[in-house]
Amino acid sequence: MTFFSNFYSSLWHYVVEVAPALALGFLISGILHEFVPSSLIERHLSGRGLKPILYTTLLGIILPVCCIGSLPIAVGLRKKGVSLGPVLAFLVATPATSVSAIFVSWKLLGIFFTLWLCFTVIILGLVIGIVGNFFKVAEPSDLSTSCPMCEEGEHTNHFHHSKLFMKRLISVLTYSFIDMPKEIGLEIVIGLIVAAGVVSITPIKTIIKANFSGLLGYPFALIVGILMYVCSTASVPMVDAFLKTGLNSGAGLVLLLVGPITSYGTLLVVKKEFGGKILLFYLAIISTFSLLSGYIFSLFYR
């Protein structure tokens, strides 16, 4: 019964941890959908130049949501007509850092570690956004101000086109907590279940001391980061503990980057929305860039 009790405890921990951010992400998506004009999105975030990628990267760093919470916002931006590059940049930047994570990182890991992390996230967002714009993906079929449910007759009583504030508020809540969960809720649930299973099976900390203090720490951090979802704030004390048990600083940075960015929920949603080729590209860029940045960082930070 030990595994099942650990699994239940881990799953409950993840649910409690991500539920507020997920709810906030759904709500922001609903507000964007209902109140942000498509013309505003098109003017500042559309197109394939550097400006929309930079805007979405900086927006992702500022927003106080993790990778799970960023998913509905990213899908909502895509349905507003934002190009693939800025959306991928947003998916990278949003979970990788947050205000709380920056302060915790500064406290536990130091200012140099924190600044390098922020710099890496910005560059990674720009790189994945610029390269991502070269991929041809199907344009969303619902670029109007209405949501996809409207044409299917599911918003008959949702007041989506009303000019009254209270009715539009109902529309926001309907889109946020009914329509969006229908779209990506299953992928998020599967992601949390798999992540809890990985945490319950793998005794990570005890393995580090004996095996992963050198170069092997890099593939270890990369694999653990991909397999186990940890939000940006929660990952900082975990990385600090790993560093104190012998993991090298570069591998710690890799884990700090990859862990929050590559949750199962994110990977499943990216595959569903953009296809398997984009998913492989997404993982390849994040993995390569994180390993490179981590190794360079280890040359300066011991």
What is the N-to-C order of secondary-structure elements (H for helix, E for strand)? HHHHHHHHHHHHHH
CA(first)-CA(last) distance: 42 Å
What is the domain tally? 1
What is the radius of gyration? 20 Å
Question: How much of the polypeptide forms β-strand, as a percent range?
Answer: under 5%
Query: Which stretches are poorly predicted, pLDDT < 50 over at least 5 residues?
Result: 143-149
Largest sheet: none
Helix content: over 70%
Secondary structure class reads mainly alpha
Description:
The protein is an all-alpha fold and 302 residues long. The chain has one domain (2-300). The chain has 14 helices and no strands. Helix 3 runs parallel beside helix 5 (84-96). The radius of gyration is 20 Å and the shape is globular. The termini are far apart.
Short summary:
With 302 residues, the chain is mainly α. It is built from 14 helices and no strands.
Kindly list the characteristics that best describe this protein.
globular; single chain; 302 residues; 14 helices; mainly alpha
Can you lay out the helices and strands and say which pair or pack?
Elements: H1 2-35, H2 38-44, H3 50-62, H4 67-79, H5 84-96, H6 99-109, H7 111-132, H8 165-201, H9 204-211, H10 217-227, H11 232-244, H12 249-261, H13 264-274, H14 276-300
Helix pairs in contact: 1-4, 1-8, 3-5, 3-7, 4-5, 4-13, 5-7, 5-12, 6-7, 6-11, 7-14, 8-13, 10-12, 11-12, 12-14, 13-14
